[in-house]
Amino acid sequence: MTYLDALQTTLAAEHAALFVGGYLGAQTSASADPTLYEALRTSYDVHRARRDELTRFVLAEGGEPVAAAASYDLPGVVTGDSAAIRGEALRVERACGTTYGYLVASTPGEQRSWAVGALLDSARRELALGGSPRPSPGR
Questions:
Q1: Burial (Cβ within 10 Å: 0-12, 13-18, ≥19) of residue 79
Q2: What angle do CA 8, 66, 61 make, to 5 degrees?
């Protein structure tokens, strides 16, 4: 996988994370579960910033940024079911973390520190959502 391919794959994962994250955020409330609501809001903001950064990286490499899909499969989460919402948010973060692991492996020189930071940030969000520490890809 080339660096540009890895950027595009990671950008596509961020598009999906934003779509599903927006849906999950709409299924909870700040009054019913303030901790989960804040975790989802923060996660959405971070994924949006990462998407924008990845778009700039793709353009800098001379690529055409992959567009978001018209639609994504959404989980069958019932509004207010905090455990199901948290579980789905954790699944999204794990998928992004795995994708960032591949980006780290495919990233040259100076850009690697950004990819490592994004991977570590994703791992912290996994833990905040109740995930357990797990080995990084390739270990």
A1: exposed
A2: 55
**Which of 56, 26, 62, 61 lies closest to 41 in space, CA to CA?**
26
What are the C-alpha distances in Å from 29 to residues 18, 56, 84?
18, 33, 14
How far apart are the C-alpha atoms of 124 and 126, rounded to whole Å? Answer: 5
Pull the structure tokens for residue 91.
């699944």
pLDDT in tens, 29-85: 899 899 999 999 999 999 999 999 999 999 999 999 999 999 898 887 677 789 999
User: CB–CB of 107/115 below 8 Å?
Assistant: yes
pLDDT (0 to 100) of residue 109: 85
- What's the per-residue H, E or C state across 71-113? CCCCCCCCCCCHHHHHHHHHHHHHHHHHHHHHHHHHCCHHHHH
Tell me, what amino acid is at 26?
A
Counted residue by residue, the chain has a size of 139
Residues sharing a CB contact under 8 Å with residue 31, sequence separation 6 or more, in sequence order: none
Residue 17 identity: A
Q: How confident is the model at residue 4 (pLDDT cuts 50, 70, 90)?
A: very high
